[in-house]
Automatic annotation (TrEMBL):
One of its GO terms (molecular function) is magnesium ion binding. Pfam families: E1_dh. It comes from Mycobacterium bohemicum DSM 44277. Its cofactor is thiamine diphosphate; Mg(2+). The lineage of its organism: Bacteria, Bacillati, Actinomycetota, Actinomycetes, Mycobacteriales. Keywords: Oxidoreductase, Thiamine pyrophosphate. Residues 47-246 form the Dehydrogenase E1 component domain. This is Dehydrogenase E1 component superfamily protein. One of its GO terms (biological process) is pyruvate decarboxylation to acetyl-CoA. InterPro entries: DH_E1 (IPR001017), PDH_E1_Alpha_Subunit (IPR050642), THDP-binding (IPR029061).
Length: 300
């Protein structure tokens, strides 16, 4: 049965850092949306306005040795932000695919072979299969690593997920399936109807600290041999009539905790600085004025 976790409460400094990361993700999406309006983006893209808390809270729960597998763009961007990696190449890759250099963790021989065998043009199916390979390799290594596989709620009812869940449950693989359920102004999207025997946690996807706490618990359970878990995070696009913007939600929480407006403004200013520097770097890279850097941005 699904249940909602009670939030134990993160340290105030951690909450401020999560707030900053959400602002960076929002501003990055805004910069990309402006590029789309200007006709600079190749292909369609959908801004993830209102979904920042799920992405940031999930990524912040990852530990050294943990792996994320997903086809959802804003989760990959949140990972870049969480690791303080340069965001300029992210913008370049969106504007000119193949030009940006976005480094990821290097797979071992076992995982690399698995991914080659099961490569699929369907990115969601691919991410679920890769999650099996990653989590199996982590189980074999015995080092306590966990794979977090992020999917949309529509993928949960697929035949592919049913097979993946069956294998993960049978082998008690160290994998957490984070299901992002998005509701928008066009109507209510239903959450996963089938859980395929997996234990389920439900969390308010507008609350970044609650998301983080829930993923931390699921990851801890998987790393100690508890097996896989589904974590469903329900969130809203900012145009939803009853939705609360996660940035507004977090700001209200921080204000109630005694954080003053000046401190909050400084956090927001740092986020703007990071994205501003990333945009300037992206422009330089697109003009061919230098290679993509490999270190973190100043202020990241």
């Amino acid at each position: 049965m699904a249940r909602t976790l009670e939030r134990p409460g993160a340290h105030l400094g951690e909450q401020l850092e999560l707030y900053r990361r959400m602002w960076v993700l929002r501003l990055l999406d805004m910069a990309l949306e402006e590029s789309r309006i200007d006709g600079l983006l190749e292909g369609p893209t959908v801004a993830a306005f209102g979904q920042e808390a799920v992405a940031v809270g999930t990524i912040a729960a990852l530990r050294p040795g943990d792996v994320m597998s997903t086809a959802i763009r804003h989760f990959r961007h949140a990972q870049q932000v969480g690791l303080a990696r340069p965001l300029g190449p992210v913008i370049v890759e969106m504007l000119a695919p193949g030009r940006g250099v976005i480094a990821g963790p290097k797979d071992g021989p076992l995982v690399a072979e698995w991914k080659q065998v099961f490569a699929s043009p369907d990115l969601t199916r691919q991410s679920m299969l890769f999650a099996l390979g990653d989590s199996y390799a982590q189980q074999v290594s015995g080092e306590g690593g966990v794979t977090v596989c992020v999917i949309g709620d529509d993928a949960v009812d697929s035949a592919e997920f049913k097979s993946v869940a069956s294998v993960a449950l049978s082998w008690r693989l160290p994998v957490v399936f984070v299901v992002e359920t998005v509701r928008d102004a066009s109507g209510v999207r239903r959450g996963p109807r089938e859980h395929h025997g997996l234990p389920v946690l439900c969390v308010d996807g507008r609350d970044v600290v609650a998301v983080n706490d829930s993923v931390v618990q699921a990851v801890q359970r998987a790393s100690t041999g508890g097996g896989p878990t589904i974590l469903e995070a329900v969130t809203y696009r900012t145009n939803h009539p009853v939705g609360v913007d996660p940035l507004v939600y977090a700001r209200q929480q921080l204000t109630r905790s005694g954080v003053g407006p000046g401190h909050l403004y400084e956090v927001e200013r740092r986020a703007r600085q990071v994205v501003g520097e990333a945009s300037a770097l992206a422009n330089a890279l697109l003009r061919g004025q230098g290679p993509a850097p490999t270190g973190p941005l100043v202020g990241g």
